[in-house]
Design goal:
alpha/beta; Aminopeptidase; single chain; about 450 residues; nine-stranded mixed beta sheet
């Protein structure tokens, strides 16, 4: 039986006025005030529970996904939401994502599901929810379950399900086809590095290319991380997981684009053939790169993939990566840092992100910091000297591999909820994908 949740703003009596006298008296006895997160089960005359009342808090201060707090308190069942929502789609999405569970390794006997929501577009909510859940499921999988081989199989299955054309370049073929940095970063792993490449959409449609960092685990390489630093490194493929979620939304919505997705999939491991600090690597676009720290491997694999993306002069390139701790220091864990050479598109992404509970904050591509990447023996060092502006210098390094693209945006994200928040349980999470999807939908929908 589907149950109903009546959602009310604190101080707004209009929804409560629709309840009968017994229900109203029950709420008074429960001291319900409509504060954010208040959830009261309202029994029928026979004692059954088929209705709840949920407080969304003060309208001006409420979280866009406050309804997720209701889902996180419920144990099982399907629920319809009723209420005067500022954004019904995001209210519905918040509830669905608030009930998310990762159950690959731990069975759950309960599942909270979403029924109808007043004013919401069911199809739009479904594709955004599926995009987020796809990213969460991938990020939450441990590296022994999602190594490079399994990740390739997962990406292939996903691409083929959407009717996309997919290919991969694996192992030493990366050297033969001029992806030297992807090969170098991943060659120390027991499973070969690879580049996944799939396309979808009409050939004559505007070209939009997504690039995602797919480092399935990051030991730090020879500049090895401490144990505490490695604990969450299964999430180092979170950029690629979010790219796949974004691709799912784009293809499900059938946006008028020729979509290309590039995901370099590697493990940054340690063995006798691991790359070293001080090595000088060739790159796909011909630039030589001095290695300042093997724990900054993500920008190396992204650079080769961005070079490939840039070669066909797409209209838009978006890359996503769990790239720097410096970005977390700058904007914390709830925001993704956004860099872009396109002011208009960056503003569109940010404008869409905040009301959709997918906020980003723009940081500058500060040209004066480019000199911090200078190398005495190569064209560039891939990390900056000193400890300042690390997220910015990482973005500046990536910018060197963008020559022909009209609009390039780079997202440096956490991809992990370090504590439960409305619509976001603890664990792997989406970042950037919803903001980018809604901005692209406005342009190409």
């Amino acid at each position: 039986m589907t149950k109903t949740i009546t959602c009310v703003w604190q101080g707004d009596q209009s929804q409560l006025a629709k309840l009968n006298e017994n229900q109203t008296n029950w709420l008074k006895a429960s001291k319900f005030e409509g504060r954010a997160g208040e959830l009261v089960a309202v029994p029928t005359a026979t004692g059954e529970i088929d209705q709840y009342v949920f407080g969304m808090g003060e309208r001006e201060k409420s979280h866009p996904m406050v309804t997720g707090l209701a889902a996180s308190q419920l144990k099982d069942g399907e629920f319809d939401l009723r209420g005067e929502f500022d954004n019904p789609d995001i209210a519905a999405l918040g509830f669905r994502l608030g009930g998310y569970q990762f159950t690959n390794f731990k069975k759950s006997e309960t599942k909270v599901s979403l029924g109808d929501v007043e004013g919401a577009d069911k199809n739009e909510v479904a594709l955004m929810a599926e995009a987020a859940e796809l990213a969460r499921d991938l990020i939450n999988r441990p590296a022994n379950d999602l190594g490079p081989e399994n990740y390739e199989a997962t990406i292939r299955e996903f691409a083929q399900k959407h009717g996309a054309n997919v290919r991969s370049i694996v192992g030493d073929d990366l050297l033969k086809q001029n992806f030297p940095m992807i090969h170098t970063v991943g060659r120390a792993s027991a499973q070969a590095p690879r580049l996944l490449d799939f396309t979808w959409g009409a050939e004559d449609a505007p070209k939009v290319t997504l690039v995602g960092k797919g480092v399935i685990f990051d030991s730090g390489g020879l500049d090895i991380k401490p144990a505490a630093g490695m604990l969450l490194m299964k999430k180092d493929m979170g950029g690629s997981a979010n790219v796949l979620g974004l691709a799912h939304a784009i293809m499900s919505a059938k946006l008028n684009v020729r979509l290309r997705v590039l995901i370099p999939v590697v493990e940054n491991a340690i063995s006798g053939n691991a790359f070293r600090p001080g090595d000088v690597l060739p790159s796909r676009n011909g630039m030589t790169v001095e290695i300042g720290n093997t724990d900054a491997e993500g920008r190396l694999v992204l650079a080769d993939a961005l070079s490939l993306a840039d070669e066909e002069s797409p209209e838009i390139v978006i890359d996503m990566a769990t790239l720097t701790g410096a970005a977390r220091v700058a904007v914390g864990t709830e925001l993704a840092a956004l860099f872009s050479n396109d002011d208009a598109f960056a503003n569109e992404i940010m404008a869409e992100g905040i009301p959709a509970s997918d906020p980003l904050w723009r940081l500058p591509l500060w040209d004066n910091y480019d000199e911090l990447l200078a190398s005495p023996i190569a064209d560039v060092n891939h990390v900056s000297l000193g400890g300042y502006g690390g997220a910015i210098t990482a973005a500046l390094f990536l910018r060197r591999f963008i020559k022909n693209t009209k609009s390039w945006s780079h997202m440096d994200m956490m991809a992990w909820a370090d504590k439960p928040r409305p619509g976001r349980p603890l664990g792997g999470t989406e970042q950037g994908q919803r903001a980018a999807y809604l901005a692209l939908k406005k342009r190409f929908g």
